[in-house]
Amino acid sequence: MVGVSLHVRISPGSAIDEALNFTHLMKSITHSLTAVRCAALCALLLLSGLLGCGDQSQLPYMGLWSGQFVLEDSENASELKGYLQIYNEHKFQFGMRGQGQSVELKGQWDFDEQGLLRLRVQTASVEDAEMNLEETKPQRDARLAEIRKGYGHEMRFKVSEDKRQLTGFPQSLGELYGHFEFEKGAK
Length: 187
Prior knowledge:
- The protein is α+β, with helices and mostly antiparallel strands.
- The protein contains 2 helices and 9 strands, in the order H-E-E-E-E-E-H-E-E-E-E.
- It has helices at residues 15-51, 137-151, and strands at 63-71, 81-87, 91-98, 101-111, 117-128, 155-159, 165-168, 171-173, 176-184.
- Strand 2 (81-87) and strand 3 form a beta hairpin.
- The chain starts with 14 loop residues before the first helix and ends with a strand.
- Residues 41-52 have low confidence and may be disordered.
């Protein structure tokens, strides 16, 4: 194998010299832009770290709340038990089971002018959890429609001072009349 070397002399001001200078200039600009982008990204990450991501005041409310529907008539105990899951970006999921019904709700949450936690239902699924053989289909459909109506409006909750309990306002769920109570992290 024979090696060959080529020596070329480029005179200043020639077309080749200008092309090489232009190439060098473009590489320099590219490196500068990359450095600027990197610096901007670092500044953005530092700023988001200092300020925190999202609204820190929402943190006490996010997470899993366990609860039940408490009947206003204290002689009867409600078997409606379930959960409220509050997510970031003001979303929630709510589920209850018992008393002949199974309910799943999804929607948006926020606080109203009085500082009450407000759940605005966007999707609702209400199902019959037990079959009543004495009930006709129209009667069953009417009963489920009445239950759906109870969940179909905005629900508001008072928040305890320690932010560990939510207490709803009295409402009707079909034949049941009472209010929801949730506790943060309870099982």
